[in-house]
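User: Sequence in, structure out. Go.
Assistant: Echoing your sequence, followed by the structure tokens.
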Amino acid sequence: MSERRPDDIPASPGNAAGPAPTEASVGTTAVLAGLVAALEASTREQRRARRWRVFFRFLFVGVVLWVAVVAHRYGLPDAGEAGERHTAVVELRGVIDGRGDASSTRVSQALRAAFEHPGTAAVLLRINSPGGSPVQAGIIHDEIRRLRKLHPKVPIHAVVEDICASGGYYVAVAADRIYVDKASLVGSIGVLMEGFGFAGLIEKLGIERRLLTAGANKGFLDSFSPLTPAHRAHTQTLLNQIHAQFVDAVKAGRGERLKPTPETFSGLYWTGEGALDMGLADAFGSVGSVARDVIGEARLVDFSIRDSTIERLGKRLGASAAAALSPLMDAPGATPRLR
């Protein structure tokens, strides 16, 4: 029997060696292996960088929260030692309502803290407000009068910046004196209730309004129903009553200094210069000049209560949604406003 050489063994699917690799195929394989290795290294680097980014984001949020907590806990007015004299400042800024910085809760709390501090020589109420809720303005007005009686040795002066109109002026007349800039806008002693009526529009569009009520006047001031003469007269009565309350507060606060004219309570406003002529204000002055020249205590301590960092962040996050939904959700004519 003859000996078989390897070359004589027939090729089969299981033991076929195939063609020998060429130099080009070896080079291609090396390039592909290099690319795979580079991709794997890049993926690992991206994952590592992503983990660090997440870590630093959590670290940043933690630092912000820590700062906010510290600021909220220790962010009290720096009034120095108990016996150190100062002029207390409380700010009334923006629209007066029950939710913002100019709410009666925040302003009244700041006023109480300012009056009760043993180092307070006087309180300056810095006003820059176009008005707002008559209820909120009335609460602040009454609280000022109450604090003046409790602390007769601590004067309170209103200092107007850009605008002190309507509800802002309602608050100002509770102070001992009102200081303005010559270009400030002052007055607007009136009440309004605004809204829209779509009854004619939906009728033209063929839309059926379905409003079911228990009580003949429950649909009062519904924007999609006609405004009846009786509802109009009732609304005017409400506005007149609130306006009369406003006028009484101005007369009581200004007393003989007021020089009323037929236009004084008409809802018009004037510059600070005009307000002086009409007795709506007492003198020109700013927070700094009144503290220095009138009170004699140039050191200012701000007792105003504002949103914490967390609250401001929350409001910013929801601001866009609120701005989009407010025209749809709010009823503009539902409540009177001093503006």
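User: And one key feature?
Assistant: The two ends are 121 Å apart (CA to CA).
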